[in-house]
Specification:
about 45% helix, about 200 residues, 6-stranded antiparallel β-sheet, alpha+beta, single chain
Length: about 200
């Protein structure tokens, strides 16, 4: 007689946990270290569900930004070797920031940053600030003994600029010389292409 009661209690517990996980705000769980550690310890399946739900929302936010933000569409048109990501996606440790980075001529790294605002679902970008751009030329890279790669930047070819200069790059179809620098188009830096996404 006791087995059916125990079985029924287990079913109720599973249903309760399922509802709790479904109702849990993934962002609030991930943003609170104590809550997250407690969930990892007491409910690893629930923690995994939170991670997967957050990943799915993050990917939707990236798709939304790529289709709705004109600057992102322009960046992807001019620079075909690029990566996009959202810094501080949860929004607790810092401002939510869209970042696009591109590799040019095997030695230049161009990046675009703009603060964004996501809706309550975390999947739609509802507003964004004017972007800021940075261009950096890498002089050389060297592999350290621990396997990491270290780089030296040529600071005289470092540029920080805004939408007005970006428009010049667009009109020139990606010609960086419009920024007033002598562009090295046939002098790639060894190890750059394999590592630029980490810089």
């Amino acid at each position: 007689m006791r087995l059916p009661a125990i079985f029924f209690a287990c079913l109720m517990l599973v249903a309760y946990i399922g509802r709790a996980v479904a109702q849990t705000n993934a962002a609030s769980v991930l943003a609170d270290p104590n809550l997250w550690i407690d969930m990892l310890r007491t409910n690893p399946a629930g923690a995994e569900a939170v991670v997967q739900a957050t990943k799915a929302k993050y990917e939707q936010a990236l798709t939304n930004g790529r289709t709705t933000i004109p600057f992102v569409r322009e960046f992807r048109t001019i620079f075909t070797n690029y990566v996009d990501f959202i810094s501080y996606y949860i929004g607790q440790a810092g401002p939510q920031t869209w970042v696009s980075k591109g590799s040019i001529h095997g030695r230049y790294l161009i990046s675009m940053h703009m603060h964004i605002k996501l809706d309550e679902t975390g999947t739609n970008i509802v507003s964004y600030d004017p972007p800021e751009f940075e261009l950096n030329e890498t002089k050389q890279l060297r592999k350290l003994s621990d396997g990491r790669v270290s780089g030296d930047d040529v600071m005289e070819n470092f540029r920080r600029f805004g939408p007005a200069e970006w428009q010049k790059i667009l009109e020139s179809k990606g010609d960086l010389s419009v920024l007033g620098i002598t562009v090295k188009t046939n002098n790639p830096v060894p190890l750059f292409e394999e590592n630029w996404k980490r810089f």
